[in-house]
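Sample entry (280 residues):
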Amino acid sequence: MRIHALSTGTVAIHPSQRQGEGRGLLRIVNTQRDTRWTEPLPIYVWAIEHPEGLIVVDTGAPAGINQPGYRPDGSRKNPLARFWIDPEEEIGPLLRGVGLSPNDVRWVVLTHLHMDHDGGLAHFPKAELLVSRPEFQRATGAFGKLFGYLPQHWPTWFAPHFVDFASQPLGPFPASYALTQAKDVWLVPTTGHSAGHLSVILQEGSRSIFLAGDTSYSQDLLLAGSIDGVAFNERAARQTIRRIQQYLHEAPTVYLPSHDPAGARRLSERAVAVGTTPVA
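Predicted structure, serialized as tokens:
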């Protein structure tokens, strides 16, 4: 499999969002109050050239994300994110830049439905779109916007295939979903950052590539056992962190969250995570 790391522009967030400060509700309040900003972080989308078809994991953010009215917090002086995205940095042009076509994509796997992960859906009208059922239900529920979802920007034709995980363990994960017939691409539930967050595991012989979405904002934070400042289900987020740590402990794994500046380099070098003794 050939894997491409494509960043749909960059985003700055609050440091207390990247690494939560405090426990429980205080952790979320601290994120809301934080006036500091990180350096611009990548918004990675992953394109996988697989013998069974082209796979795209997440779709990034659109160039219009900064237009007035796009975000409910657009008029606030202190929004939770600052984006820098040019039209040529949307996922469609980025794919064409590496010789691939959005129309040739067989599967689009959405780790979750926050605006910087589902914002490029319009580029994939011919693909099969996969998302977990709890994630879709939360995004379309009465309080979806409170949890960071913007379903009003989805294409009218968006009708995803729901990933219902089978009770088939994969390492420390109690359930899994085999995407490919070859059983070398798996989806696993990684709830916490969002209600139905999932991750993608590619198996390359004895090595795994773990496309982690927003389970953490960097590999270092994952290894330290930190959770972010916006995960509403803290218990689930901590359980997910422990399961990922255990997976990395059991098998050589390249861990790739969506906003880690070192992600593309680790992918290119196939640099596996080290120091992964699970945090109790």
